[in-house]
Design goal:
alpha/beta, Rossmann fold, 3 domains, about 15% strand, globular
């Protein structure tokens, strides 16, 4: 694993476990738990434990949730090469747990940030993902220096707060490259939830400063949206003269937050997912979103979920460049262009984000592929395969062709992405999988165009 293109990211507290440790983890799970028909969730997987587990137990259903797109893409690539079924999902756990994994997993494994808030957050999300069964278990790694036992006490306090029973602690089970502060090792904890664990997890108030270093380190000061960015956003909004503006995210100045409706990024995404089609939704007009300084990775997800006619987004220039300056042949660009177009943009600098103003496109302006992608985007509450199936049927109807659910389902299931992500939601997919989805959509359209005119019985 020394040659993997996954260099540690400092502000995500990445420290790589040794390959032997990853194998030990996989063998421990296979030996001590009945993995037949089981679903295992890994919350963060910079160490690539999922690949070791797939080698040891290729029939187990493995899901990886991470905010690092590199990790998700690499795991997907290797799994495809070996024919393993590993579902990779994007999420920043400070904002959400992917809906498709809620209360669906038998085992959860995580090697979380070693701060009390980081441990609390990752364990809480793990509890939210576990099935309500007596066999559900939460396994995690944690290490502390022999000279600082108080750090271990803090973690024990977290376990108490989450009402978790510690069934076992295996000292020095995990070995790392680096991490000299904890003697390059960490224990493996095996915990069992109680009936009070899930309510404790759901009541968690999240502080985004969960890491030991970098921009989200626990000792950093909460950052407000820079004044220059605020002025730019006000100028853009004034030029558009919207009737109503919704503010999304934190860090807005008092003069704006006190006169406009405001909602957290988590609350906005939740409402979009559950009530996006509501005619009374206040989110169909103008929406200003602040992704600074922690949540720039949510740019694409905002564009996939939002129903706003006008979107004004404060986001880091490199993130915006990777999307809006990308080659038009980039499938991700094709995906986003099916619903939004850039109206104006003002760049930021090294210390503050830029601002992008987008306008929602008329769906009638889209070509065949973009039209079908737009249908997927317009149904975020549906599981991917269900939305894909209905989009193919609707497309066939527009062309005067009758297409059954069975026909549509069969061509989708022949796509690897359709098979693995049958129960996922569109906004959970990694950027790599979103790109792959464009090609998969084209292939299903081509397959049905060659012979899908006759109605089959349901």
């Amino acid at each position: 694993m020394n040659d993997l293109p996954l260099r540690p990211v400092r502000h995500l507290d990445h420290v790589s476990a040794t390959p032997l440790t990853c194998l030990k983890r996989a063998l421990f799970l296979a030996k001590n738990y009945d993995l037949g028909g089981a679903t295992i969730l890994l919350l963060g997987d910079h160490d690539l434990t999922s690949l070791a587990l797939a080698q040891v137990a290729p029939s187990v259903a493995i899901t990886v949730v991470d905010s690092d797109e590199r990790i998700l893409d690499y795991i997907s690539m290797v799994a495809a090469q070996h024919g393993w079924t590993i579902r990779t999902l994007f999420a920043d756990l400070r904002i959400e747990l992917p809906r498709s994994v809620t209360a669906s997993c038998d085992l959860v494994f995580t090697d979380p940030p070693y701060t009390p808030e980081g441990m609390r957050l990752f364990l809480a999300r793990g509890l939210e993902s576990l099935k309500p069964t007596s066999s559900a278990r939460l396994l995690f790694c944690y290490g502390f220096s022999e000279r600082h036992p108080a750090l271990g006490l803090k973690v024990q306090s977290v376990l108490h707060d989450l009402r978790l029973v510690t069934e076992a602690v295996l000292p020095h089970f995990n070995r790392y490259r680096g991490a000299e502060a904890i003697a390059s090792s960490a224990a493996l904890y095996i915990c069992r939830p109680t009936r009070r664990s899930l309510p404790a997890a759901q009541a968690l108030k999240v502080d985004p400063r969960i890491y030991t270093q970098g921009k989200s380190a626990e000792e950093t000061t909460m950052m407000a949206l820079p004044r220059g960015v605020v002025d730019t956003m006000k100028r853009f909004l004034a030029a558009q003269t919207p009737e109503r503006v919704l503010l999304v995210g934190d860090g807005w100045p008092t003069d704006m937050a006190s006169t406009m409706e405001a909602v957290s990024l988590k609350g906005y995404l939740h409402t979009l997912f559950t009530h996006r089609q509501s005619a009374r939704s206040p989110y169909a007009g103008a929406v200003a979103v602040n992704l600074f300084p922690y949540y720039h990775a949510y740019l694409v997800r905002i564009l996939l979920l939002s129903a706003a006619k006008q979107l004004l987004i404060a986001v880091a220039d490199p993130v915006a460049d990777s999307l809006f300056n990308a080659n038009k042949d980039d499938p991700l660009r094709t995906f986003i262009d099916s619903s939004y177009q850039v109206v104006a943009r003002e760049r930021g600098n090294a210390k503050q984000p830029g601002v992008v103003l987008l306008q929602r496109r008329d769906p009638q302006d889209a070509d065949a592929v973009k039209s079908l992608l737009r249908l997927l985007i317009d149904h975020p509450q549906a599981r991917l395969v269900n939305a894909w199936r209905e989009a193919l049927i609707a497309r066939g109807t527009d062309q005067g062709r009758r297409l059954s659910k069975n026909q549509a389902r069969q061509v989708i299931e022949r796509q690897r992405l359709g098979m693995i992500h049958a129960h996922s939601y569109l906004s959970e997919l990694s950027l790599g999988n979103l790109r792959a989805l464009v090609a998969a959509v084209e292939q299903t359209m081509a397959a049905l165009g060659q012979g899908g005119n006759e109605e089959e019985p349901e």
